Amino acid sequence: MIYTSSMKLVIGLGNPEKRYDNTRHNVGFFALDHIASMYHVAWKQSDKFHAMIAEVVIRGEKIMLVKPTTYYNLVGESARKLMDFYKLLPGDILLIHDDLALPIGTIRTRVGGSDGGNNGLKSLALHIGTETARLRVGVWTDAHHATDKVSVVLGRLSKDEQATLDAKLPKAAKIIEQFATGDFETTTHRAST
To answer: Is 40 a catalytic residue?
Structure first.
């Protein structure tokens, strides 16, 4: 059994500068922007935590939405500061990130697992461990076969890809609500990649 605290963090992975808007690596930010909009909350810059933060209450549970400003590959630094300050446990954290192993728009959930070559997840593993919940959002299409991975994740979404992801935002919101209320269910076994 994973013990949790009275507050939970939902951390979206992404890059903070405008030039990264609408890139595949910023899927975590897209999902959190959708939730913040649903609950009519504004983002506030927190230099202390190296993040943009918005607080919501979901079915009576306090949730802190977090968009780290450390850049994708150093996201663990922000997560560690928040975890230490609020005395949180890994079970109090849900990560939302893009996944090249999944077709565009596919959503999978899991607890723990490998980083799969994702540098943001490597940073998080280093700073807070691997026993966090994850919401993985597929960003792969067959058109990317001849392209290196960095170019894919930092590349801009096409209109069709963006529409596909936009259509999945309500499902991501539902998973975040389930996490908030302790009803998070995994769709991926821990040992799978």
So the answer is: no
